[in-house]
Amino acid sequence: MLHLYLAGSAHQPRWRVLERACRAWDLSFTAQGKRFDKNAFGPDKSSVQDSGAPVQLLLLPEAIERLSNANLEVKIVRKEASRICLELDVKFYS
Question: Which distant-in-sequence residues (6+ apart) come within 8 Å of 19 by Cβ?
Answer without folding.
Answer: 38, 41
